[in-house]
Design goal:
- The complex is a heterodimer of chains A (about 650) and B (about 375).
- In chain A, about 70% of the residues lie in helices and about 0% in strands.
- Chain A contains 27 helices and 2 strands.
- In chain A, strands 1-2 form a two-stranded antiparallel ribbon.
- In chain A, helix 4 (about 55-80) runs antiparallel to helix 14.
- Chain B is globular.
- The relative contact order of chain B is 0.15.
- The chains are: A mainly alpha (about 650), B alpha/beta (about 375).
- The interface between A and B is large, with 78 and 73 residues.
Chain lengths: ~650, ~375
């Protein structure tokens, strides 16, 4: 009875004034923060902390948690509509959500993302409620060996994510793992592949890499096709209600991905990356039409949509029960607990159970409200995908650059975006799968850390005999071999992709994939062993895979028919126009990037917007002027004036300043 | 007519009107400050505090608290805001402040005092000279603690020394306080610890202790311990066995922190010949939450900032809030005024080379 009383009392407290008002305010802020790339939930919560000193515990939680629990929901919307993640936790939604928008199904993707987010959030919250009696043993059940095996299970998804070209996929996955070794090694702090740049010490951030890989190619594509985001009219199946129906049709997937998100949320140190990318991988792996992923499969929206919201309920569990934050954002929340006088630990599960349950209610109510309000005008929002693409391109590029910058307030991440944008574009062009790279990058550091911890804790590898470890190992082997077995069974039925002759660029990219691990292996040969092992364990297979793939390519180029023979030459636009437009947009992107570097963000954003709209899109001068004013207004008003992002002064101004002395 | 273009244009019109309004407000503000010619430099201006850490950690929280109160103690009441500049193990921010920020009194920064040790031990990524910063003050001097679970045999430093096997202690990277205190204690007290690498931050270490994978923690700041272990400490489920102590300039020794009067300091337990290395390892980093400005800040403005900082430290409203963040039951934070911090930093620059070499071996592994 005490349990139910607390549940009810928690609900009453949330709806009591001023708590409800505070939750509304928090939810409204979180709504906007989620939509806008470049303002993360972390920074916003830190920004809001000073306001809570005068609030009651439940009021403060309603405000902060209401704000945080909807950012991932609305962040998904930006990912789907523009191909730019509104939040770091929403990046995986791009892979299939944005292609749906391009197909004219923005409404459907949005509906599915919102509904799965809502179910995920409620799921995570209910797990929190349901596990209160057993929360401590639950959290303590998983040690570093079990977590290591879970990460390995995740790594094995790489093969599944590769689509039809498994070898290329695994090669790219190992490349992601190798990239993950950039930065200080966890055992002795050796600087690996940092080239003397302190910016690289903490490794590559996921968000700029994902933005480069996925957003930049979309921008190029849009500029080449001269279309709106939706390349055709809205389809009959593209409505919001359709997406909601889809979510319920795939109810089992929603629940499984919610569970993945919750478990990852419970484990401190895992973070938002694994939750969304593993659930994405699971959505692919459990599908019977793998070939549609990356081209707009609804499951690719539903899976990560559910997981990136359910992880919040999970992350609250260790935060409340142990005072050990389940995620970086929960660490801030924990700081807030202390400020308003709540002591996390056993008492949150007994004496202050009503406060704990009020948090559950906040997560549920704020998400219900957000989804409800969004549904009202979702079909309108979806119409933005019908706006002329050339009008949007400067804004999307602006969103990409500001979003990448704001991850660490660091210019170096813009360089990362441009480099991976280039790589991503080439990969799209040559049909190399991109998600395995991100998964490798996400899981690499975890694999290495958990392995070291497991080995050191047990003075060897005796932990390999743990029952849970063996179980997870069997599961991993199943994941790896099930598709192979299935393929053997359905041989010829599904119709393999017609082998296309490799192009010259295939060989260039493949050579890069040989040179990079070769360089990594060579330059790490004299490193101390703890720092060297991981790059070698990953680099050797990558090198072998890359060389084997080269051999496959050479053999194919002799036997397979050429692209022209398969009739794959584009019909409408001539090859020449496409080529010219591709070069043109790439030059524009590089000009924008260089302008930011040389004359700073505040000048180059409106300038680029104006020049692009006037010179490339051929807009009327007043349209160009108005839109560039708007871009400057957003940049100055929100990011400079309100949020104080530390934009570097342009390099040129730095030089001018120096000459003054 | 409900075409997207019309909708977009409507949205545009609203935005433009809002922006015009915004600028009118700003313009009025600017004019009101311009009319008052006799008033100080800071009137109508804004000071930024660069935080060399990501949002949300204790340095960020302290930075934001100081930002809340600093302005009212500066003539002209400037606005104060925060910019996070994490990265490079905390070195990006001091590198930026030293090389690129203008010494105009409008940019200050807060860093972990570990950056001082980075320079002393010859970290190649250091692009600053800490002795040349314009030091404004430190918000606190804090101790580092070592605690063990009650259900282990390691109830004291002596018990660890005599135990059959060493206790398992986790760390989150060689630059972390966990690793450094572990190594220092091993070296100075002749203990052996079983150091376990690979933890991603302190939360997984806490969890591993909770699980029984690890036996305790070396190098935790009290605020973190209160947060994650306050309950267990009260119940006696964990035992604090060692503290670094607070450096007392007068007696030139480390004193026990008032919150932990029954816990011995490293200084007390170490032999005489180890005291020098303890001193050079701990004194430079003792003013842990350091505020500073670029080198060459005009003396008048440095004085204004130092005075305002010290007034903030003694501001009752600030103190009530900072105690909540740092959680000291005795409310002892030991802030350091600017002049004293300046002297401490000049002294830290003069560590003899042989001790520096010894430090490098201690932390080197």
């Amino acid at each position: 009875m005490f349990y139910l009383d607390a549940l009810l009392s928690g609900l009453v407290q949330v709806f009591a004034w001023p708590n409800f008002g505070l939750m509304l305010a928090g939810t409204a802020i979180g709504f906007v923060v989620g939509l806008l790339p470049g303002i993360g939930g972390m920074a916003t919560m830190a920004l809001m902390l000073p306001f809570i000193y005068q609030m009651s515990p439940v009021g403060a939680m309603a405000f902060l948690l209401g704000m945080h629990s909807v950012t991932a929901t609305t962040g998904d919307m930006t990912s789907i509509l523009f191909g730019v993640p509104g939040e770091g936790a929403s990046a995986a939604l791009i892979v299939d959500g944005h292609p749906m928008a391009k197909r004219g199904e923005a409404g459907r993707a949005l509906g599915a993302a919102l509904m799965s987010s809502l179910i995920g959030a409620v799921f995570g919250a209910l797990v929190l409620v349901g596990t209160v009696p057993i929360v401590r043993p639950l959290v303590l059940a998983l040690g570093p060996p079990e977590l290591f095996m879970m990460v390995i299970l995740g790594v094995s998804f790489i093969g599944v994510l590769s689509g039809s070209s498994v070898m290329k996929g695994i090669l790219i996955g190992t490349f992601g793992l190798l990239l993950a070794s950039i930065g200080m090694d966890p055992k002795m702090g050796w600087q690996r592949f940092t080239f003397g740049q302190p910016q690289l010490w903490e490794g590559l951030s996921i968000a700029p890499v994902a933005m480069g890989l996925f957003a930049i190619p979309e921008i190029i594509d849009m500029a080449v096709k001269r279309s709106s985001i939706a390349e055709g009219p809205f389809t009959a199946l593209g409505g919001v209600m359709e997406g909601i129906k889809d979510t319920f049709l795939h109810w089992a997937l929603v629940l499984r991905c919610s569970a993945i998100g919750t478990i990852i949320g419970i484990m401190p140190g895992l973070g938002a990356g694994p939750a969304q990318w593993l659930s994405y991988a699971h959505a692919v792996q459990s599908s019977d039409h793998i070939q549609d992923f990356g081209k707009g499969a609804i499951e690719g929206v539903i899976g990560p949509g559910a997981a990136n919201n359910s992880k919040e309920g999970g992350a609250l569990i260790p935060t409340l029960a142990f005072g050990i934050p389940g995620s970086p954002i929960m660490a801030i929340l924990l700081g807030a607990f202390v400020i308003v006088g709540l002591v996390p630990g056993q008492s949150m599960l007994t004496k202050h159970l009503d406060v704990t349950f009020s948090m559950v209610w906040v997560v549920i109510v704020s998400n219900v409200m957000t989804v409800g309000i969004s549904l009202l005008f979702l079909n309108q929002i979806a119409k933005i995908t019908l706006v002329k693409g050339t009008l949007l391109i400067p804004f999307i590029l602006f969103m990409v650059f500001i979003g990448a910058f704001a991850v660490n307030n660091n210019f170096a991440d813009l360089v990362v975006v441009v480099l991976f944008g280039f790589l991503g574009t080439v990969m799209v062009h040559l049909h190399w799968p991109r998600p395995p790279l991100v998964l490798g990058l996400v899981l690499g550091p975890l694999a290495e850390n958990y392995l070291w911890t497991s080995v050191a804790l047990h003075h060897g590898v005796s932990w390999l005999a743990n029952p849970a470890v063996i179980l997870l190992a069997i599961l991993t082997l199943t994941v790896v071999f099930y598709p192979v077995w299935q393929k053997a069974r359905h041989q010829g039925v599904q119709g393999q992709e017609v082998a296309e002759a490799p192009r010259g660029k295939d060989f260039i990219l493949n050579s890069l994939m040989i040179l990079l691990p070769a360089f990594a292996l060579y330059s790490s040969r004299d490193w101390p062993k703890p720092a060297m092992i991981f790059p070698w364990v990953v680099g050797m297979p990558m090198l072998i895979l890359a060389v084997s793939n080269l051999i496959v390519l050479i053999r194919k180029s002799k036997t397979a028919p050429s692209a022209a023979a398969l009739g794959k030459v584009p019909g409408e636009d001539s090859e020449v126009t496409n080529y010219r437009r591709t070069v043109s947009i790439i030059v524009w992107i590089l000009v924008f990037f260089s302008a930011i570097w040389l004359i700073g963000m505040l000048i180059s954003v409106p300038l680029f917007t104006f020049l692009y709209l006037k010179l490339d899109s051929g807009e009327k001068w007043w349209v160009a002027l108005l839109l560039s004013l708007l871009s400057w207004g957003i940049l100055f008003g929100i990011f400079d004036w309100l949020l104080h992002l530390p934009f570097p002064d342009g390099y040129v101004f730095g030089l001018l300043n120096k000459t003054e002395f | 007519m409900n075409s997207p273009l019309i909708m977009a244009l409507k949205g545009l019109a609203v935005t433009v009107v809002c922006l015009v309004f915004l600028f009118m407000v700003q313009a009025t503000e600017a004019r009101s400050s311009a009319t008052d010619t006799t008033s100080s430099f800071y009137q109508g201006k804004a000071i930024r505090i660069i935080v060399g850490q990501p949002p949300g950690n204790s340095f960020d929280l302290i930075g934001r608290l100081v930002a809340r109160h600093l302005g009212k103690h500066i003539p002209g009441n400037p606005a104060v805001f925060i910019q996070n500049m994490p990265g490079g193990g905390g070195l990006l921010a001091p590198n930026y402040v030293f090389n690129a920020a203008k010494p105009d009194g409008l940019t200050i920064a807060i860093s972990n005092s570990a950056i001082v040790m980075d320079q002393i031990t010859g970290n190649k990524a250091v692009q600053f000279d800490f002795s040349r910063f314009s030091w404004i003050g430190s918000a606190s001097q804090e101790i580092r603690l070592a605690f063990m679970r009650k259900d282990t045999p390691y109830h004291s430093v002596e018990a660890i020394r005599t135990a059959a096997k060493p206790p398992k202690i986790g760390y989150s990277g060689t630059g972390s306080g966990f690793y450094q205190m572990s190594r220092l204690v091993e070296n100075c007290l002749g203990l052996k610890l079983d150091l376990i690498p690979g933890f991603i931050g302190s939360a997984p270490i806490d969890l591993a202790i909770e699980r029984g994978d690890l036996d305790g923690m070396f190098g935790t700041p009290p605020a973190s311990m209160w947060r994650a272990w306050g309950d267990q400490l009260k119940r006696g489920a964990i035992i604090v066995i060692l503290q670094t102590g607070i450096w007392d300039t007068g007696s030139q020794t480390f004193k026990r922190h008032p919150d932990f009067q029954n816990v011995p300091t490293l200084w007390e337990l170490a032999s005489a010949q180890k005291k020098n290395i303890i001193k050079v390892a701990l004194v430079p980093i003792s003013p842990i939450r350091m505020f500073y400005a670029p080198p060459g800040l005009p003396a008048v403005r440095l004085k204004i900032l130092r005075d305002a900082f010290w007034a903030t430290m003694n501001d009752a409203a600030y103190r009530a809030e900072v105690i909540k963040v740092l959680g000291s039951p005795q409310e002892k934070l030991y802030p350091v005024p600017g002049e004293k911090l300046h002297t401490m930093m000049q002294d830290s620059k003069k560590i003899p080379p042989d001790l520096v070499e010894e430090l490098k071996t201690v932390y080197g592994g």
